Amino acid sequence: MANYDLTPRIAPNLDRHLVFPLLEFLQERQLYPDQDILRAKLELLNQTNMVDYAMDIHRAFYHTEDVPQDMVDRRAEVVARLKALEEGASPLVNFLQNEKAYQELRAEKQYNLQMLNERYQIGPEQIEALYQYAKFQFECGNYSGAADYLYLYRTLCTNSERSLSALWGKLAAEILMQNWDIALEELNRVKEIIDSKSFSSPLNQVQNRIWLMHWSLFIFFNHDNGRTQIIDLFNQDKYLNAIQTSAPHLLRYLATAFVVNKRRRPQFKDFIKVIQQEQYSYEDPITEFLACVYVKYDFDAAQQKMRECEEVILNDPFLGKRAEEGNFASVPLRDEFLENARLFIFETYCRIHQRIDMGVLAEKLNLNYEEAERWIVNLIRTSKLDAKIDSKTGTVLMEPNQPNVYEQLIDHTKALSGRTYKLVSQLLEHAQTQQAAR
Amino acid sequence: MASRFWTQGGDSETEEEESDYEQEDNEVPVEDINKAAKSKYLQGSDTESDDEDGQKRVVKSVKDKRFEEMTATIDQMKNAMKINDWVSLQESFDKINKQLEKVMRVNESDRVPNVYIKALVMLEDFLNQALANKEAKKKMSSSNAKALNSMKQKLKKNNKQYEEMINKYRENPEVEEEEDGDDDDEDGEDEDSEFEEDPSKLGMESDAEEDEDKEAGEDDANETGPGWEKMMSKKDKLMDKQFKDPSQITWDTVNKKFKEIVAARGRKGTGRIELVEQLTFLTRVAKTPAQKLEILFSVVSAQFDVNPSLNTHMPINVWKKCVQNLLTILDILTQYTNIVVDDMVEPDENETQKGTDYNGAIRIWGNLVAFLERIDVEFFKSLQVIDPHTREYIERLRDEPTLAVLSQNVQEYLERAGDNKGAAKVALKRVELIYYKPQEVYDAMRKLAEQNEGGEGEADGEPKAVEESRAPPSFVATPEIVPRKSTFPESSRTLMDILVSLIYRSGDERTKARAMLCDIYHHALLDEFSTSRDLLLMSHLQDSIQHMDISTQILFNRAMAQLGLSAFRVGLIAEGHGCLSELYSAGRVKELLAQGVSQSRFHEKTPEQERMERRRQMPYHMHINLELLEAVHLICAMLLEVPNMAANSHDAKRKVISKTFRRLLEVSERQTFTGPPENVRDHVMAATRALRQGDYQKAFDVINSLDIWRLLRNKDSVLEMLRAKIKEEALRTYLFTYSSSYDSLSLDQLAKMFDLSDKQTHSIVSKMMITEELHASWDQPTRCMVFHDVEHTRLQALAFHLTEKLTVLAESNERAQESRIGGGGLENLPLRRRDGQDYAAAAASGGTARWQDLSFSQGRHGTGGGRTGYNAGGRTYSGQAGGFSRDRTGQSRGVGRTYQTGSAARASQMDGSTRMVSLNRGAYA
Question: What distance, in Å, lies between the first and last C-alpha atoms of chain B?
């Protein structure tokens, strides 16, 4: 199943720290040998300042208690640097931690800067130091501290470039702390800036969008309302273009979101077209499933794909998130996906049939006969399906849903009278005003 | 009288045939006399160099005097030729004929003097040249042109009498030339051979000339012009003589000489080839590399001047030399990296004096990119002109690797020099050399280039050695540093990628656009349809192509054609049709692809236009096979149009996918007898007839019998795809046509009928059901499809018709009102109207919209661009439209009745909508 794993394609678009959760997940799923993952983690950590963690992993990797000297050195160095940065930023940090002083800040940045400079001798150097300090904190794995400092930094920062990177940093920190609500806010903030800002090159902008979309996966598949929002975000023209040009693998998530989401029908049709177009550049069971149901009308293949989808979902770090209920773990998204996928197949299948054998249907739906019957009865009862079950022959009979000619006629003419009344009244109005004028 | 009689006999000007016997009689004496005369003259001319002219003059006999008169007249003629003055030329011609009479009489011979013959030859040549040069002819004043014409006739008549002698003269002009001791500046090519031989000889010759020039100068005041010219050229030659001694040559002398020669460039009477030769000579004696470079640049530009016309190409040997020169330039530039070539800065006079040991940058004027582009253009032109079915063409094509080498070297140099813009331009030239080559052809070229190494080295070496031995050895030896063999990567795609990415990085707009088109073409050629489609959509070229130059537009058309072919090969019929239909819509494919000129019945082209068009033609080896293109286009159209026609059989005009195809079909249907298919069109029409009857096998066989398929690389798979498509469309057509005759149809039978698998059949039919093209549904337990009777009754159909009319009426009322009292107040109106317009536009898009709009219009926006809506124009709409079309079918006759029933309906409608619902429900029940 490793062949549907998207981690190698997603990882380059994430922050170093954001890759850890993915690797953890992979380790849990046992998709790759443990050694490989540990090595990957180690490599990842080498560029960060999370030296302690790196040491742990090193021990696990080589099964030793010793830690190479350079790591120890590195640790000392990191600690020293942290100290230095803390010192540099301390005046500002002290000021900000002082509740009273903090109240003096106002919405206007220029005023704040001036005020700080005059009263507390805090100049641009200190503000810069705060940024560096926050960044370092983040690199050391102290996300909450980093998030706080970055938030403060943003209130004082005048450089828009810096402000944006601070925002990215904050977003990453919030994601890593799993504060999904705040992260979502941050996400929208970043998005606004990306969409509004005039980037040096369009290419740059596209790249930023792609990053944003990758990062947002963490949020959307954890946030309660995420599945609607992922469609809102990804399906925007600009973002869809970015997906198509540079990151077609994101289609998997969009497709899943579409399947899981029950509304969104109008956009869904367009999305099918996109999938069709991108077939040559990206295919995985989830998109293929949609293609089978809505393009090829090949229901056997769709069923096959549905089974594959299950695997894919379980092995995807974003989709296969576990919900623990007592000692019973389930993957909520998988169940939801399968349910909806079944509905998709069934719906389309019914549209082109007038009589279906229950046995066949059960098979198509991956259910047994009893279950299938219950399922269909449920559908009929909730009036999602206009059909009857003929239990003697074991078939489902569809009610023909030909539009009534008379209803059509009424639809056509309904608006006419209203329009005519309006017309007349306007004419009269006009005549009156003219008379009055005379 | 006796003498008069004799002269008459000798006077061949009138009728020679008559005097035949007399000639025989006179032969002996005449010859004697003639010999005497000649020898005398010869002697005279020989001794002239020794004796003083003045002396000569005194003792001139009558004979000589006449003779001199004649030469004077000839000189006049020469002058007239130089200024293209036909009026005075005509006068001189008359005069010389009279003088001839006199000379003959004096000489008492019937042999025409050589001088005269030579003049005739000269005249004839000049006349032919003048006639050939149409542009100049057009520019002539009317009197001049008239004179030219009468001259033409006179000369023709006159020359007939001397045909033999003229031919004899033409065979070995040297004899005469030497005899006359005349040097013709005009006659450049003869000059070459002499010039190249040896400077020492040149010196001698110029001595002889000098005296003659003097004489000429004294003879006639008119002579001053050419006299001056000749003095100059004589001086040149003296200079050349100076160069004979290597020790005397200094930078100054060379520079001075160089300036002189360059100054003479473009002046009247300076032979172009001669100029090249002179400059080539100078390159050998150049003192410093920089100077050599400077001179070489002039040589190259002089070589470009050899062919002044836009329509003809540069002689091939000159072209080859030119390439060699450019390679030498590159050698020098690579060897001495401190020399900078620039066409912006006006260089210092003595810049080139700086020798090899000079460390700073030396600036030389020149533009390598322009030279290379020119060379490329000349190569292209020569291929345009040469008949592609000859060996010459193939020989010419063999020069392609040479050009590739040169451009590669230039590009490398420019990249080293940091001129990325120039490098991009050169890279584009290289791209244009390879973009149309499929891998096989590319491999062939690569092999040729490798082979050439051996052969060419020899061929080049030989003349070079000879040249070296003849000339004084070069002062600045230039070792061949730049590789003479290009290095082609294994796959053409790799090369394209390298070049194209370079261009995208640093090319200008046009270069980038062209490179992009070439890239698209090449991808399409390699069957990578989706990649090339994405490139096209991302670049937005289809939006801006109208504003580009014609040659780029042609390239765009070619790329589109190739894209269509590739879509077809991959099996994307609709896309293929979208790409090709525009090309065929106006019936001017040849013109659009620049693969031949098509005659238009309706307006004549001016010669100017025609010439322009001819200049744009693609050389033969770059052509896209038109038959294949047509076949693909028509087959695509057939596959789309046949089911479409079957679906809308009631009002065929309603939705047309391919107008071209419909027209052809009409024509073929109008024929009383249909013969066996001959051309591509007939084949497709025959296939269409079979397909409409659901006979997929016959349709496929007919198409399979086309012999253009052998042009396809993956012929078998394409034909297999085509077979599958034909089956599929046959099934669809069958269902459209006969569904009304069935109540149910079993899947097995359908599958068997069209030789399709159950799964495929099911999928096709399901698709038709979903899109509501077919009003039916499956009965799963029995594996049957059950057709629903959704045909409306006559009353229902009329009612629909009425409501539609009512809507139109209401709308027009609203519009009328709005126009009277202004748009205020009707908030919902504009919106609705817009909807209506959209409706119309969508309906129209089926047939009339331009294909770009149809299939590619909604291409990517912004950088990434959205590929959404690719192909959104026509198809999506069809389901909806299909539904409506049924409602409206067959009711065109009952218009009168429509209104009658209409009034009743209207009345009931006025009562209120609620009542109407119940009323209708009642009717339904």
Answer: 134
CA trace torsion A65, A69, A73, A74 (10° rounding): -70
Q: What is the pLDDT of residues A386-409, one digit of tens each?
A: 788 888 888 888 876 666 778 878
Instruction: Please check whether residue A31 is in contact with residue A56, taking contact to mean a CB–CB distance below 8 angstroms.
Output: no
Running DSSP on this structure, what letter comes out for residue A294? I
* For chain A, percent of residues with pLDDT exceeding 90: 0
**How far is Cα B641 from Cα B644, in angstroms, rounded to an integer?**
5
pLDDT reported for residue A76: 83
Among partner residues A419, A420, A426, which is closest to B825 by beta-carbon distance?
A426
Closest partner residue to A409 among B800, B864, B865, by Cβ?
A: B800
A282: which chain B residues are within 8 Å (Cβ-Cβ)?
none
Q: Does pLDDT of A147 surpass 60?
A: yes
The answer, as to whether pTM is greater than 0.90, is no
> Is residue B57 within 8 Å of residue B48, measured between CB atoms?
no
B-chain residues near A293 (CB < 8 A):
none
Over the stretch B531-566, which tens digit does the pLDDT of each residue have? 888 888 888 888 888 888 888 999 999 999 999 999
pLDDT of residue B781: 82
Residue among A238, A404, A429 whose CB faces B862 most closely: A238
Q: How close does chain A come to B320, measured CA to CA in Å?
A: 45
Is some CB atom of chain A closer than 8 A to the CB atom of B758? no
Q: Across residues A111-127, what is the average pLDDT?
A: 73
A277 CA to chain B: closest CA distance, Å? 8
Q: What is the pLDDT of residues A76-112, one digit of tens each?
A: 888 888 888 888 777 777 777 776 666 666 666 677 7
Interface of B with A in 497-556 (CB under 8 A): 530, 538
Q: Which sign, positive or negative, has the C-alpha torsion B471, B476, B478, B479?
A: positive
The runs of H, that is alpha helices, within B15-113 are 20-48, 53-58, 62-82, 86-107
Q: Does B746 touch chain A (CB under 8 A)?
A: no
H or E stretch including A353? Answer: strand A353-357
Nearest Cα neighbor of B637 from B663, B670, B667 is B663
Mutation pick from B757, B801, B861, B867 vs chain A, by most beta carbons of A within 10 Å, is: B867
The per-type count for chain B, helices as H runs and strands as E runs, is 43, 5
The helix/strand/coil state of A54 is helix
In this predicted complex, what is the ipTM? Answer: 0.75
Restricting to A residues 286-305, those with a Cβ less than 8 Å away from any Cβ of B are 296-298, 300
Number of neighbours of residue A407 by Cβ within 10 angstroms: 13
C-alpha distances (whole Å) from B436 to each of A257, A383, B431, B618, B619 are 44, 61, 9, 11, 12
Other CB atoms within 10 Å distance of the CB of residue B267: 10
Chain A positions touching B869 (Cβ under 8 A) are: 270, 273
| Pairing of the two strands B744-746 and B776-779 | unpaired
A73 Cβ contact partners less than 8 Å away, ≥ 6 residues apart: none
The verdict on a CB contact (< 8 Å) between A423 and B530 is no
Low-confidence ranges of chain B (pLDDT < 70): 1-63, 106-111, 134-140, 171-251, 265-271, 310, 343-361, 452-486, 598-604, 650-654, 789-792, 822-925
Residue found under tokens 């995208």:
B504
Q: Max CA-CA distance within chain B?
A: 137
| CA torsion angle B738 B744 B749 B751 (round to 10) | 70
Percentage of chain B exceeding pLDDT 90:
7
Q: Is B367 exposed, middle or buried (0-12, 13-18, 19+ CB in 10 A)?
A: middle
B337 and B276 Cβ atoms separated by less than 8 Å:
no
Task: Give residues 40 to 99 of B whose Cβ lies within 8 Å of A.
Answer: none
